[in-house]
Each structure stands twice: as C-alpha cells, then as structure tokens.
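Whether sequence alone determines local backbone shape is best considered at the level of individual chains. When preparing material for the folding task, we compiled for one chain both its residues and its backbone structure tokens. No coordinates are needed to read the tokens, only the vocabulary itself. For completeness, the protein is quoted in full, as a sequence line and a line of structure tokens:
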Amino acid sequence: MNNNCRNVLLIAILWLLASCSATKYVPEGAYLLDEVRIQSDNKEVKPSNLALYIRQNPNSKWFSLIKMQLYVYNLSGRDSTRWINRALRRMGDAPVIYSAEDAERSREEIAKAVRNMGYMGASVTCIPTFNTRKLKLTYKITTGKPYKVNALSYDIPDEKIKDYMEEDSAGTYLKKGMYLDVNVLDLERQRITDNLRRHGYYRFNKDYLSYTADTVRGTYQVDLTLHLALYKPGNDSQPQPHRQYFIDKVNFITDYNVLHSSALSSVEVNDSIHYKGFPIYYKDDLYLRPKVLTNNLHFSSGSLYNESDVQRTYSSFGRLQALKYTNIRFFETQRSDSTLLNAYIMLTRSKHQSVSFELEGTNSAGDLGAAASVSFQHRNLFKGSETFMIKLRGAYEAVSGLQGNYRDEDYTELGAEATINFPRFLFPLLSPDFRRKIRANTEFGLQYSYQFRPEFTRIVASASWSYKWGVQRRNLQHRIDLLDVSYLYMPWISQDFQEQYLEKDENYILKYNYEDRLIVRSGYSLVYNSAGSALMNNTLIGNSSSIRFNVESAGNLLYALGKITGMKKNDDGEYTLLNIPFAQYVKLDIDYAKNIMIDNRNSLAFHIGGGIAIPYGNATVVPLEKRYFSGGANSVRGWSIRDLGPGTFPGDGNYLNRTGDIKLDASIEYRTRLFWKFKGAVFVDAGNIWTLRNYEDQPGGQFKLKEFYKQIAVAYGLGLRLDLDFFVLRFDGGMKAINPESGAKRYPFLHPNFGRDFAFHFAVGYPF
C-alpha cells in the first residue's frame, strides 16, 4: 500500500511538471532560450574558458538537469493580485526570452577574447536552432592559425628603469615563440610595474608601458617591441626619466573615522605625542602603546618607497584585533621638484569589549538535554591588541536506561576556559629584532571541565602554549602547539560500573580511558586554501582546493626522562609522574578537498582524508580524545555518529568500542543552488575506522592490508542547506549502500529498509 501511494504521488508530480509548459509565459513571436553551447575547432581554445562572455544564459537547472525554478514560476496564474501567484513567481525564475541583440554582443565578445589569445584571424558564428517556441543557440568558433612572436626587442629610454628590468628579467612572461596573447602581454606590463613600485617608483603605472607588433608579410610571425614612455610633469613639459620617491615623515592617526572625509583637515585630533621620532595623533586617549604602532610599521623615514613594505604594514596592522580599519595615505611634499612622501597611518579602533551568549540542545542516544555558555572578550587588554577571552559553560542531560545500582542523578557538566592571544611572537632569550621578524601570534590557554554522571565523576584540566601565523600570498596558515598539558582525573567511579565494565569484562580500552591520565603533547598543523579571500556571499568564486595536515606527538620527553631517572612504574608497567601514568603516541592526519565550479549555480566537490594514531612506549592505547570514530554529519552519513566500525565490528552498545586508530574517509557531492538562500546536494560517502591491535572487545576491527578495502562502508543521500551568508545550516539524509558487516546487512542498497538504513544529520557549515 505504501509503495502504491508513493508511485501515485510520483506520477502526480511528474504529470504536474509536464503539464506546466515551459513556454507558458513566452510572448507570441518570441522564443524561450532553451540551451547555449560553445563549440571550438581548436582543443587549445576551451569553451569553458569563454562561457563568461555569454551575455544571456538559459534558465538555471537544479543539478544541471531540471529547470525547476522555471516550472515553479509557470505554476503561477496570471492574476498577480493573488498571494499564491506572487509567491510562486518570487520563488521561481521568469523564462529567459531570446534576445538577438544579446546574442550578437556575446558573439563579438567571444571573438574578441579568442583574438586576444593570439588567433587574430578567428571568427565566431551564431547558429540558432528552433523547436516550436524554444531556441537552442550555438556559438561556433573557427580559430585559424595563431600569431607567434618571432623577435623581441625593448625600447627603454630610462636607463635606471632599464637596469631594474634587466635585473628582474628572469621572471618575464615574454618569450620567443609564444602566442601573441594580449592577456600575457598585459600580465608582463603589470609585473614590471609591480617591480618598479618596489623600487621607489610611487607614481608609476602600467599605462607607461605599451607594445608594437609588426607582422612579417605572408607569415604568422610577429616582431614584438615593448616601449616605455618617459614621465611628463605637465602637458607642456619635456619628457624626463621617472622619479624615485623616498619616505620623508611617518605619522600615526589613531582615531580616524572612515565615514568622514578622507581629507586630513577632517580628522579629529585633540592631542599628540612623539615616540622615537614618530608623531602620534589621537582624540581622547591613546588606546595602543606607541611601541605596538612602530613594531607593526615596515617602512621608515629616509627609506625608498616600496609597495611591498606598504602591503606588509597593512597585513601587520590587520592582525591587531583592537583595530577595525587601516588606511595608509601618502602625500607629496609641497617643496618644488621634491620626490619625498609624507606617510599617514590612519587607524580606526574596533569595539574592544563584547559579551556573547550561546544556547544549544543535545541528544545522546535519545537522552535530551541543553547546554548554555557565556563568554566575555577584551580585544585590547594591555593596550597592545592582546585578545583575552573567558568562557563559562554549563550542560544538563537526562540520563535514562541505566541498569545497575547508580546514584539517582542526571548528567551535569560545568566548564571554564580562558585564553589570551598576543599579536606577536613571544619566546624567552630571543632578541626583539628576531621576534619582530616572525609574524606569529602567541596564545596561552587554560581549560577546566567538571563532568558529573550517575556512573562516575570526571575532571579534565589542561593548559596550552601555541603559535599561529599565516602567509597571505600563499594562502597558508600554520600552527605550532609548543606545549599542551592535559590531566584527566577520576575522583569517583560507581562500584557497579567498576565491577561490570572495568573489571568483569576486562575491557582494556574502557579501563584505560577511565583512569587518571596525563597527556603532554606537541604538534604542528598546516592549512592551505587556494581560494584565499576569493569568497563572495560565502560562495567560492572559481575552482579551489585545500589541504589540511596535522602531526602531533605525546609523552616522548617524559618517557626519555623515565628511562634516564628510573621513574616509578605502576602495575600495568607504565611510567608514572607523581603516581599518574602518562600517554605516549604519535598521530598523523591529512585531508585534501577540491571544489570544481560547473557554472554559477552548480559545483562538484570531493575530499579524501585519512589518519593514523600509534600508541607506543608507555601506552598500548591512544587516549579516547585522540581516537577516531566514523559516521555522523562530517563522515559516512548513512550512519549516525560513532555508529560505524571499527572494521566489521557490529557494535555492542558501548560507544568506546566504536573507536579506532586508523581512519579513512572520502566523499563526493554535487551541489546546486535551489532558490532564495537554499542549496541542495547529492552525495556519496565512503570510509571506516580500524584498530592497530586485535582487541578482544572489538572483534573484526583490526586493520589488515589484504582485507581493509572490503570493509569500506558506502552511503548515499540528499542534503538541503540554508546559506545565511554568515553561516550555513545543513540538513543531510543518508542511506546505507554497502555495510562492512557480513550477512544479510551487507548490501542495503539492494534491499533498502528506511527504518534500519537511514540517518538524519543536522550541522552548521559544509562537511568539507
């Protein structure tokens, strides 16, 4: 009966869509632009690179298949006074009516673009194909032969600039035999300009550079000459060599209002001080220490103007949380024939103090609860843009279904966290000049968590010292955790829990993670994102890729100390510090993701990642917080969180046994923009976790090279995302396709059971 209902509903939807003619709102004598194609007779001229020159595109398609928004629009009636018709039209897209004028402009733009690639004789024809009231448009490109550079010459009458160009000639884009590509020629003009602006040529721009191209008659060879125009102070002035500029005075204005005029006369200043020769002007109070201002400045009085130093200064001040905006302005001195520049570093302060409150709901295996946190942040604690944050968190969750003599209490957690971030590199015994060269932030943190459950009470306390810095040009971010010390303390464990789980079953993983433990670790992580700042409304512009790498190690120094000093061991053969055993392991994680833009509404994203955590020396198990789990919103989405693996292990109701030492994950998503701020996705996930050792309580969980690929779980599903620009709400529904477990559950995609094989996930942000 249920299958029949679903079939009837599906047929009804298909009939409804089919009945909504795509040309319902196409005027008489006009045509619906149904499809646009670009065809090229040359493999080197790719149609995908020319799609941006199309002035008129057909109605968008969901998943590049269905013009759903056009169908939604066509569901509306013609009476615009009815709210339902207005709503359908807002949700949908009006039909795109073919415009011959736009088609001709597109043809001209494509032809111009192809000719700029060096195919001077290229032609583009526009071929329409009619089908009743629909039209398919094809732009057919005939490139012809490309023009190539036969000889290169330079006309540089300014000797000093000529020397700079020769010194930097290794980076030139111009080469004999290259196509006469206008885009490459323009890149060379910009490259030369950037180099000269790093050597004092403040007023130089690429318009001073031009080309002449002489073709050799009867051939496709070109003699190319690069020309430099000399500087002319006025229309009636004689040309002269370009001038190099030097920095004269550097001034700081700390209370610049970006909403006011940019003229210096409009800046409100009440007082000033001089620090090491730098004038500092402020309105009411100087909220930053003078040393902070000068330490983030990368040019000084008497130095040659250098555009790179200016950008480094922008970047350094941009790291200061006490500032909202930075604007650097240069003014030529009024002395005649002067080549001196006065610099003004104009700063706008941010809101230094803020309080935030968060509330969230929790659900652990059907037990409902809530958590709340309040945090206070000060972004200029010691007048050096130090960011101090303190956060208090509380959580409560009803605990049900416990079998045993436990205390009648629900789960309660109280936590506190405090961090302070210094926008400079701090390390003892290093010179100030050396520390200034390393553009890293230093962060110190303290965390405390008190967890109160019917079965036990657990306290986790930790302290950390880390460094973070980025390389903006290369879109790299680095982090070094110099020292991270965590202490797990179990002040009370229920006798029933002790006997039933920790002693009776001899579960080593469970026992290891419910004992007092010390973790002293160090680590390094790197994040690379090719997109960098190429984001608009939370959407990537163009293709992008990212790499995440992390390595950490714990216990090595303590183990070496234990070996040398003969440190005391406990009954399990572990070295102890103050009678507390410490963990020892090494962990490595790597993840690669790529986003491929198909068009402005559709993209294909995929990622693959893996990790391994190896206990050794003083431990045979990795601590729970460092072990891997599989399933959930950011893993194989056909399984709930911590519900998959390790290996073929079917689970025994204990989530600690659903952890492993090795993890492999891979996903592919086809993403599409639906309507308003809603986006959709179709995805396939694969992965699992494994253990390095053959633990008795995790049968089938050990990693074996000849068998692991047979144990990879596969899931598929649909996703809906609400993109609110500043964050994304994600709803994913996944179905199991291949189950690592043997038997009847092995291939659920052949015999799907919604109640057994479906998992729903709610999350914030994209999975990768």
In short: The first strand starts at residue 32 and ends at 40. The two ends are 40 Å apart (CA to CA).
